[in-house]
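Please describe our next protein:
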Amino acid sequence: MHRLAPHPHFGLVALAAAVLAACQTPPTPEPPPPEPRPMASQTCPPVRYPATAMRIGLQGQVRVQLTVDLQGHVTQARLVEPSQLTIHSERDPDPPAAQRRAATLTLERAALAIARRCTLPPVVGNYAPATAVLPFHFDLE
């Protein structure tokens, strides 16, 4: 009777397969989405009315686009043009253009400074930064 001998490399192949199976780590499960938190409105420092703008009676709205990281911190702020500003002054209803432009710049800079210090609710269900547009109102009344 003829007896079949195992192939000399059969044992090595089985051993290699067993070692590979033991060394492979199971796939890492996807991280769970962040726990939803109650939605709260943005928190921003109080608006400080620039004296230059107040002096000529400039008021209105400055809109700022914010880029917010996953924790709700502002990483970027830029103006959304044009700012909607008007002069409300009985003393000088038509100030010189240079004075008006200087006052406009101070309001826009004030809005940007406030926006950079705002905190928005954390981004839930999204793994990329988000953007939002916030209006900042400057009213003399």
Notes: Confidence is low (pLDDT under 50) at residues 32-40. Helices lie at 10-23, 51-56, 97-116. The chain is about 30% helix and 25% strand.
